[in-house]
Write a structure and sequence with these properties.
The protein has 528 residues and is of the alpha/beta class. The protein folds into 3 domains: 366 residues, TIM Barrel, CATH 3.20.20; 53 residues, Oligo-1,6-glucosidase, domain 2 (Alpha-Beta Complex), CATH 3.90.400.10; 74 residues, Golgi alpha-mannosidase II (Immunoglobulin-like). It is 24% helix and 17% strand. The strands form 5 sheets. It has an 8-stranded parallel β-sheet with strand order 11-10-9-5-2-1-13-12, covered by helices on one side. A 6-stranded antiparallel β-sheet has the order 14-15-16-21-18-19. Strand 15 and strand 16 form a beta hairpin. Helix 5 packs parallel to helix 6 and helix 10 runs parallel beside helix 13. The chain is globular, with a radius of gyration of 23 Å. The structure holds 1-O-alpha-D-glucopyranosyl-D-fructose and calcium ion. 1-O-alpha-D-glucopyranosyl-D-fructose binds next to loops. The site of 1-O-alpha-D-glucopyranosyl-D-fructose (TEU) has 14 residues, from loops.
């Protein structure tokens, strides 16, 4: 399979850098911390890391508000630290993917400072400025993802600027060719440093309606949901022209060999797959977030997998995400008992999986006490359970002070399972979730049918989720019990096989017949 791109068989591991490893005693993770833990990532068995933003930033949205796209924030280290990280990651066989945030900058970026200086500033049109509505007030009804109007009034120049997120995150104007050129140069800057790919933040937001029409009301909207959902973002996201913008990003990426372009896209599957682009000239991987909000039952999951597989364009490579820094932890969503089954699902589906740091330890979704909330989203829109700090707590390395994350009080509190669920402990425990991740990653590497084989769903059997993965003469059956009750699966009469991986580790190597008993919360990978 030497002709296939590296990222088709790779497993990606997302690092939220503030929370991974602190090395200079300020309670915040840093680049040297990631470098120090590269051996850990090799031991776990991942192939690539995607690091959430590390660029110069006032940190209003923890790095998703960038004030210099071609510099490293001092909180995380220096450019020399970054170059060392890249060199050492590559020496360890690990690819490095950076987070590219082109939709908006910080309001402290020199471009915006210049843009807001006057109506005639040469950079005025780099951002989205509009006059007040005829009767006064914001130009239209567009809402911010983080609550309130998406328009901020600038008294000095008498106009409003658009911000899809915080008012300290003004949206750049991607209809302006100078903006496009500047941002492509940013990509080239990092690609020349050896970066292996980019995850592009909110890529489906890049283009807004030229006529600034009002978004229509959402008929299904009800109280208790974030206010931005009151309107359908018809004229603010997923516009047809966004695909042209993405195609040009892809052409720039293709100036460099073997680079990966991932798009962050929250859309229904039929719209999501359009981001592979015409003739697959879009992003290589439009992040598939279906599992983040899936109801945890076999029927629902099977339908969702079938729908996604069926929607993929010819040549479009699938991918799966089980957790990220914006959504509640998987252990919180599916329950601790199902966490192992969820891990087996992620690592046995067809397509590139992304593991969120700490999910290999079953880190929980943490309830952050109000006085320690740092997430600006939760501070803006409190009390509807959408805070993001709870999935960003410090990595749990060992049983020493602050879980080995830092010598001082971390920027967010530790979860309360850190004394048991830390790397040092779980690594020694053969039946731990950590060892399950490791075994699955190893088997995935050794078994091309798992990384590259076809997916075929098995006729639904009660509450079991069952599917085949096949390549040439190699055939695997994956059986996942999504309930806490024992289940029996009967398949092809006379079939026999061998368990390659069992969630509890105790059935590895077991011979199987055509009647297969699964315990509650158990999953098996079987070689037929
Ligand atoms: O998130 C985009 C996104 O869709 C968010 O609005 C998400 O819905 C929200 O965080 C609630 O879950 C990206 C980044 O991943 C996020 O961390 C940033 O805050 C946001 O863009 C702005 O850059
Ligand atoms: Ca630090």
């Amino acid at each position: 399979n030497g002709s296939r791109p590296w990222w088709e068989s790779a497993v990606i591991y997302q690092i939220y850098p503030r929370s991974f490893q602190d090395t200079n005693d300020d309670g915040i993770g840093d680049l040297n911390g990631i470098t120090r833990r590269l051996r850990y990532l090799v031991e776990l068995g991942v192939d690539a890391i995607w690091i959430s933003p590390i660029f110069r930033s006032p940190m209003k949205d923890f790095g998703y508000d960038i004030s210099d796209y071609v510099d490293v924030d001092p909180i995380f280290g220096t450019m020399a630290d970054f170059e060392r990280l890249i060199a050492e990651a590559h020496a360890h066989g690990i690819k490095v993917i950076l987070d590219f945030v082109p939709n908006h900058s910080s309001d402290q970026h020199a471009w915006f400072v210049e843009s807001r200086a006057s109506r005639t500033s040469p950079k005025r049109d780099w951002y989205i400025w509009r006059d007040p509505a005829p009767g006064g007030g914001p130009p239209n009804n567009w809402l911010s993802e983080f609550g309130g109007s998406a328009w901020e009034f600038d008294a000095a120049t008498g106009q409003y600027y658009y911000h899809a997120f915080l008012n300290s995150q003004p949206d750049l104007n991607w209809r302006n060719p100078e903006v496009v050129a500047a941002m492509h140069d940013v990509l080239r800057f990092w690609a020349r440093k050896g970066v292996d790919g980019f995850r592009v933040d909110v890529i489906w937001h890049l283009i807004k309606d030229r006529q600034f029409r009002d978004n229509p009301p959402n008929q299904n909207y009800h109280a208790g949901r974030p206010p931005n959902e009151a309107l359908v973002p018809l004229y603010t996201t997923d516009l047809p022209e966004v695909h042209d913008v993405i195609a040009t990003l892809r052409r720039t990426i293709d100036e460099f060999p073997d680079r990966l372009l991932i798009g962050e896209i929250y859309l229904p599957v039929e719209r999501l797959v359009a981001y592979y682009g015409r003739n697959l000239g879009g992003v290589h991987l439009p992040f598939n977030f279906a599992l983040l909000s899936a109801r945890w039952d076999a029927k629902h999951l099977q339908a969702l997998i079938t729908e996604y597989e069926g929607a993929l364009p010819k040549g479009g490579w699938p991918n799966w995400v089980l957790g990220n820094h914006d959504r509640p932890r998987v252990a919180g969503r599916v329950g601790q008992r199902q966490a192992a089954v969820a891990a087996m699902l992620l690592l046995t589906l067809r397509g590139t999986p992304t593991i969120y740091y700490g999910d290999e330890l079953e880190m929980p979704q943490v309830d952050i006490p109000r006085h320690r909330v740092r997430d600006p989203f939760e501070r803006n829109v409190p009390g509807i359970g959408i805070g993001r700090d709870g999935c960003r707590t410090p990595m749990q390395w060992d049983g020493t002070q602050n879980a080995g994350f830092s010598s001082v009080d971390p920027w967010l509190p530790l979860s309360d399972n850190w004394r048991s669920n830390n790397v040092a402990n779980l690594r020694e425990d053969a039946v731990s979730i950590w060892n399950l991740y490791r075994r699955l990653l190893r088997v995935r590497k050794e078994t091309p049918a798992l990384s590259l084989g076809s997916y075929r769903s098995y006729a639904l059997d009660g509450d079991l989720l069952v599917y085949y993965r096949e390549l040439d003469n190699s055939k695997l059956l994956i059986a996942l019990n999504l309930t806490d009750q024992p289940q029996v699966l009967t398949f092809e009469p006379g079939a026999s096989g061998k368990v390659l991986v069992s969630t509890g580790a105790d059935r590895d190597g077991e011979a199987t017949t055509d009647s297969l008993a699964l315990r509650g919360d158990e999953g098996l990978v079987i070689e037929l």
